[in-house]
Amino acid sequence: MAIRTLDDLDAAGTTVGVRVDINSPLANDRSLADDARLRAHVETLDELLDRGARVAVLAHQGRPGGDEFARLEPHADRLDELLSGPVSYCDATFTVGARDAVEALDDGEAVLLENTRFYSEEYMEFDPERASETFLVERLSSVLDAYVNDAFAAAHRSQPSLVGFPSVLDAYAGRVMEAELDVLGNVNDQPDPRVDIVGGAKVADSIDVVRHVLEHDLATEVLTTGVVANVFMLAASVDIGDASAAFVREEGYWDQVERAATLLDGHRDRIRLPLDVAVERDGERTEIAQDALPPREDESVLDIGHDTIEAYSEVVADAGTVVLNGPAGVFEDDTFAAGTRELFTAVAESDAYSVVGGGDSAAAIRRFGIEGFDHVSTGGGAALRMLTGEPLPAVDALDQ
Ligand SMILES: Nc1ncnc2c1ncn2[C@@H]1O[C@H](COP(=O)(O)OP(=O)(O)OP(=O)(O)O)[C@@H](O)[C@H]1O
Ligand SMILES: O=C(O)[C@H](O)COP(=O)(O)O
Fold first, then answer.
1. Residues 303/274, Cβ–Cβ less than 8 Å
2. Which domains does the chain have, with CATH numbers?
3. Which annotated residues bind ATP (predicted)?
4. Is 154 near ligand 2, meaning CB less than 6 Å away?
């Protein structure tokens, strides 16, 4: 791949469009509930501002119709606090107001343009050539000299602001993009044995990862946690109870049970299922051994139990590399946080080279103040896609 980086960009005095991913959890009043994704881009944005560029920042927030579909003014205010140069907010993205705001910038100043997804074309997927003809790319590129993509976490989307600009402007990877491609692109070359821990709720994506790492012999073992483990237990005919089975069905994961069963048929000795699980009983955490399941009718499996944490931690202790994706349980609730907190801590404190993917996983790490991972990815779906060896459209578009 021949992807240019900021090292190749003569930034001083040029107007640069920088696509970032600052899609963040919001509080009820629409303020930012977490600014981690904004902080991740400080290095790229500060470098450009310090080198005298004029920076037009492009980003999305939420999905049309969703609860977190919102204006980017709070994001602009926070970036203004975080960055070395002033950041203004413009409530347009590519129309005349936006272009005027970009043209009014001085060297070392930035403007955050409005949520790209306020425009219908931005929520469609195009090939890069066609994306370069969309209104957003066509209009905005007329006031830009170069384009930087730092939005690794959105790189699995083939949307105009992510894939359209490289056809019409010199394009570069920002520092976040560069680091993510470096780490996730080389994870298969890290020390053996490799152990993948798959949890959380993105069941289909996680099963893609399990299949890829087992079929290509990239991982020696896969440890399942979270909803992913519940699906694998159902596939192994473990009775996780009506409530958890109903959750799997309601969330649309039932098709995945069959896929999990196929993987178990081929690789049973390399896929570990929880030895015990935690449910809520009389308002308290209660742990149940796998062979004592099912739980009572209304009880859901919400975490892995302590025997599982111990067994998985022993596997981690012997690993050369650990790739961790998704929380082990409902970590947001203290009652069911132990699996995530203790297993993640075991990984962070092990001698293994450790990589973590997923927005919720990163949030759990911050919540529990766990330190010691080699890399915590900014990407959820994008990181999973890379771990399955699939190309990322926005990365391919940068490859000029
Ligand atoms: N046993 C369980 N039952 C129900 N929900 C669970 C269970 N285990 C984990 N979860 C939930 O899964 C969610 C996180 O899963 P997800 O796959 O989204 O993680 P991620 O990949 O780290 O994050 P992101 O999707 O933001 O990138 C959390 O909200 C957690 O509460
Ligand atoms: O949070 C993410 O995973 C990225 O910002 C992409 O968001 P999307 O899944 O709404 O495209």
1. no
2. 6-179 (3.40.50.1260), 186-387 (3.40.50.1260)
3. 332, 358-361
4. yes
